[in-house]
Design a protein that fits this description.
single chain, alpha/beta, Rossmann fold, five-stranded parallel beta sheet, binds 1,3,4-trihydroxy-5-OXO-cyclohexanecarboxylic acid, DHquinase_II, aromatic amino acid biosynthesis, DHquinase_II_CS, lyase, 3-dehydroquinate dehydratase
Length: 144
């Protein structure tokens, strides 16, 4: 199947950004590892990171044209703010998993609401870099 990995704002800083919360692995390393994992499962993975809400929304729309089967998304702070990303995901009607490196439920109150979770196939949070591979494993199961 064809999968799309989306990473939202500030995730380009992974490895340098608050390493006590987000770990010291870079996004480049995560994408490399996930691309390999996808290939070994017989899938194709494309990736976009953007700090811009509209760019993420455009990529979600393009996923419909590209016939993407499944989306893995770490929306970063847009999780807690973006009705527009919610509407985009609902609009294209492509199943998705919401994922977070940190356990958002153990953090500030404002991180405990997500505009996406109720539309998601599932949510994975709190496993650091492993949240990505766990999400891919779950997507693989759902695609079977
Ligand atoms: C995050 C959690 C969000 O609350 C935060 O704004 C991020 C990263 C995570 O992966 O833990 O940017 O999505």
């Amino acid at each position: 199947a064809t999968l799309l990995l989306l990473n939202g704002p500030n995730l380009n800083l992974l490895g340098r950004r608050e390493p006590e919360i987000y770990g010291d692995t870079t996004l480049t390393d995560i994408v490399k590892q996930l691309t390999e994992q996808a290939q070994s499962l017989g899938h194709e993975l494309s990736h976009l990171q953007s700090n811009h809400e509209g760019v993420i929304i455009d990529r979600i729309h393009q996923a419909m044209t590209d016939e993407i089967d499944f989306i893995l998304i770490n929306p970063g702070a847009f999780t807690h703010t973006s009705i527009a990303i919610r509407d985009a995901l609902a609009g294209v009607n492509i199943p998705f998993i919401e994922l977070h490196l940190s356990n958002v439920h153990a953090r500030e109150e404002f991180r405990q609401h997500s505009y996406l979770s109720d539309l998601a196939s599932g949510v994975i949070a709190g496993f650091g870099v492993n949240s990505y591979s766990l999400a891919l494993t779950a997507a693989d199961q759902l695609l079977k």
